[in-house]
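Subject: Interface between my chains keeps coming out wrong

I've been trying for a while to get a sensible model of this assembly. When I model each chain on its own everything looks fine, but I need the whole thing in one frame so I can look at the contacts. Pasting all components below, labels as-is. Any help appreciated, I'm running out of ideas.
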Amino acid sequence: MALTPHDVQRIAMLARLDLSPAESDTMLTQLNGFFDIVERMRAVDTTGVEPLHTPLSAVQDVALRLREDVVSVPPSEAAREANQRSAPALADGLFLVPRVIE
Amino acid sequence: MSELHTLGLAALAEGLAARRFSSLELAETLLARARAHAGLNAFLHFDEAAAAEATRAAARASDARRAAGQALGPLDGLLIAHKDVFVTTDFPTTAASRMLVGAQGPYRSPFDATVVERLQAAGTVSLGKLNCDEFAMGGANEHSAFGAAKNPWDRARIPGGSSGGSAVAVAARLLPAATGTDTGGSVRQPAALCGVTGLKPTYGRCSRHGMIAFASSLDQAGVLARSAADCALLIDTMAGFDPLDSTSAEFAGTEPNRPGLIGAQLAARRAAVADPARPLAGLRIGLPKEFFGEGLAADVRAAVQQGLAQLQALGATLVDVSLPRTELAIPVYYIIAPAEASSNLSRYDGVRYGHRAEGAKDLLELYRKSRSEGFGAEVKRRIMIGTYVLSHGYYDAYYLQAQKLRRMIADDFQAAFQACDLIAGPVTPTVARPLGGGSDPVTEYLADIFTLPASLAGLPGMSVPTGFGAGGPLGLPVGLQLIGNVWQEATLLHTAEAFQQATDFHLRTPEGY
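Reply #2:
Try treating it as a single job with all components included. I did that and got this:
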């Protein structure tokens, strides 16, 4: 099943990307070339096979480890400054974004 | 001492311990070399005076510790550098992407990656950050937003990717060793194409905390150096459980996953050698027939076979095995990795750090314009593939099917390991191709066929220089790939070390370096 220009636009919208008409054309050709090789994969019978989401679980038990939901680094002005020093726009220690609510 | 750049990690450690030279002298020598060979484009953000000063300050601190008799261990004062996907406080971090260069300049991390922190705690001095493919996506280092790195064996050719800057720096003797990361072969491929030794450890061996995520179930930190012994020195310090990474393994087999474990296991292997002329006696090496079929260039095949004959001469037994889903590894990987990448890269939205587009009227436009301007073509391509295969109605057909096949690929390895202790084959189908010679992305993806299966299965792999193929003034390097079962890094390192004691391919230096 080949992708259409409409599919590419839809995927770009979901991916939060704007593609120029030239980029969309190239992307369409490349994605269709790519999905040609993927078809071989889809043809394999995998009935009854468990998906392998993390590789070590193929050979040993792997448990998802979660930390306690607590503040582990004490809040401080210095930590906030370090965390925000690469921010594009700030005011009063807050990240600025374009207006969201009119 | 003008010849300091010719020495590997172990020799430099010995020289520092004997006080024949200082860490600062080593740093000055290598800073000067990096500057003299800036045309290789191995380093990023290199010209900043503050970066050089951070290097000198760390070297002086190491010298002061040594003078006070308080050296931290064998790595204290040694110069290395980190692939630009490890976040660092001393240097900017960009993952070779314009997305991480904002109005304030390149991104500055408030913390160091665990791998970086461990190496610094052992006294290593960093020379800066190394070029790579953007967000580690690529096999040629041609997808860096700051230009391709050049292969020192022939500057008109690719070094391989994505840890290309790391491989170039080690091959051109700008550094004795460097960190890299391997998602689908990104340590092993550039190591092979630049003639250096590279190790990708078992998934979960090294912490991913502070390593900019590409594909979380595949990414693993690795090392590139001149020899297996030098790789062992670094990985032994970097490895170990980290509670800050939820995918970090608490146990490496039956032993707690800790720094020092690989070194101890390697020492035990060295000590168990009964006949020094046949250090690999008893070792069974499996040769998957799928790794030696059509598509493998004749010069690469010849060099790999020469390497296998050498392993046999050292006492190893070669056995035939099969990895029947090898070809499927390409579509499986190129579904799973972009799917995870599309999720991981959603954090780059122009709000908290990185590039922000000018003049966006609302939040959605801010996201779309910032991401479209910040990401390069290969990254966009993979985000698009990943978004598509995870989208409603396609998840089962692509992503879930790929994860099931991933299980079958991993099972094929376990079946093969019934007949052998490790697996050997080529790393890449050809020697380094010319820069700009990539025909299309799909062809480029096909070149990953020998490295992807081990990545999908989370297995440790190495690339060891095994000879030279056609091209360049001296011939172009060829790598021999060794793949072990999980947690078998010591077996890989011991095999590679024995190989390097019997050969000198890893000691050859490109002309002019």
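Reply #3:
Confirming on my end. Chain B has a mean pLDDT of 96.
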